[in-house]
Amino acid sequence: MGLPDAGKLLRQSSLNLPPGPFPLPIIGNLHLLDLRRQDKSLMKISEKYGPVFTVHLGFQKVVVLTGYEAVKDALLNTADVFEDRPAIPIFYHIQHGNGVFFSSQELWKTTRRFTIATMRDLGMGKHLGEERMVEELHFLIELIRSFKGEPFQLRFLNMAPTNITFAILFGRRFDYEDPTFLTLIKIVWVGRDL
């Protein structure tokens, strides 16, 4: 029994991918790309293969969409195909595919659905979020007025968005000098200058 034909294996693994230039071993199609102007290189490839094509960046297969119509069609008509994201090997090694930011595949989809549902439950995209922002803006304006034109630190401007988030999460806002709030700020903004 002989070894399988490499070209046949490549064609079988690429059946569901759009056409593109034939990849070289190890480097794939990197030889076709000007790394300083990848956009121009990809547009040149699209002249031959159309607005949707596949390139190989080393061993990684990448589907490229060029032009407004191709992107619009892909995101509107076949959004489920593009909803996943590839695993990033270093983060997969460190976190074993877990976590909100670096998960992929089914775990990422589940985490994303949960996060969106939770954010909606907390008022994101509803009037509740807007109401909290307007409320915080009134407190911020009053605080700025209290300085009567004298100089003041901008840390309150940085603290306002955090206070909006805390108001949504904890159901109440904090005074800018509240010790609990300042402790939470220090925890959230570790290493940043207030």
UniProtKB/TrEMBL annotation:
Molecular function as annotated in GO:
heme binding; iron ion binding; oxidoreductase activity, acting on paired donors, with incorporation or reduction of molecular oxygen, reduced flavin or flavoprotein as one donor, and incorporation of one atom of oxygen
Q: Is this entry keyworded Nucleotide-binding?
A: no
Q: State its location(s).
A: Endoplasmic reticulum membrane; Microsome membrane
| Biological-process GO terms, alphabetical | organic acid metabolic process; xenobiotic metabolic process
Signal peptide positions are: none
Q: Which GO terms describe its cellular component?
A: endoplasmic reticulum membrane
Q: Which InterPro entries match?
A: Cyt_P450 (IPR001128), Cyt_P450_E_grp-I (IPR002401), Cyt_P450_sf (IPR036396), Cytochrome_P450_fam2 (IPR050182)
Q: Mention any Pfam family matching this sequence.
A: p450
Q: What keyword terms does UniProt attach to this protein? A: Endoplasmic reticulum, Heme, Iron, Membrane, Metal-binding, Microsome, Monooxygenase, Oxidoreductase
- List required co-factors: heme
State the protein's name. Cytochrome P450
